[in-house]
Every structure is written in C-alpha cells, then in structure tokens.
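Comment on this:
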Amino acid sequence: MSINITEGNSLREYNITVYSENSVGLSGRITGIFTRRKINIESLNTSPSEISGIYRFTILICQSYCVTQKLLRQIEKLTEVIKVYCHTDEQVVWQELALYKIPAQATKAARVDLEKILRIYGTRAIALEDNYTILETTGQRQESKKMLEVLSPYGLIEFVRTARIAIIKESSGFIEKLREFEAGS
C-alpha cells in the first residue's frame, strides 16, 4: 500500500485511488467500508483506467491520517481490489466540471457583462436555448464556487458539479505498477 501522507490526527483531505476489476456490487462494498466507519465521502468517481478491464475509483475524504490508513487496509482486503493509493492534494493534479443554467432573459439583458465573466473565468456557453443558457467551467472546487456566486445575481436556475478526477503527479502510471506487482508475485 502506497501512502505518501504526513502522519497525525488532524483532519485533512485525502485522495484515495482504487484500482480494481470491474465487478458488480464492488462500489457498494467499498462505500460500505466508509459507512461502517462513519466516514463521509466528499467525492466519488469511477471510470475505466488506462488498462483494459481495470477500473479506477477516485475517492475524496476529509479524515485523519490514522483513520485513513485503517480504511485503506480494509479496502485492499476486498478480493477485486488490485491496489490502493492515497495522496494529498499537493501530490495530485485534480479537476472538477461544473454546469450552470441561467434564464435566457438574463443572458440577453446582461450580454456584455456575461461575455466578460465568461472570458475572466474561462467559462463557455454549451447550450443557448429559448428559455435558458447552460454554461460550463472546469477547475478547482473554489473556482466553481466563485462562478456560482458570480452567476447567482443572473437568476441561477440550476447548478451541478461532478466528482473529482485526479492524476498522481509522481507516478509512471498504473501499467508500470501492475508490472512490478506481477513480477513480485
């Protein structure tokens, strides 16, 4: 188990990456481990990995090092789990995607202001309909929260943000780790 985090009992965010086989019910078993320990999952994303047939869970929690370490050992005991990694925000590059729906009337009335906002925040319009406009931004959570504040005066109808996706900075990729793991077996 690769845990590159500072020891201690203070709470901090940890990015947990789980590589596993694609198995029905695995996400339920993984989240069950969190539930039994009364740990809230801040963000959960699952997706195929760079290896065919291997899936990647990216889980964000806010917890102490000691509790996180015990949690990782429990996850690694699951039969379908190949490997578990844990990193701090400083050790990963991460992003989230956010969508904002605002009324079309607001878009028409404040066109110049909105165009300026779109440029400043790197936001783009992805749907221009008769009744609404949908805007998209990608970035850190604080950026999507700031955009939420900026768009609220325009009559925000709806807002949604994806789970975190993250790539480990100092990693040669899971293919290399898998080769090392298989060589050691």
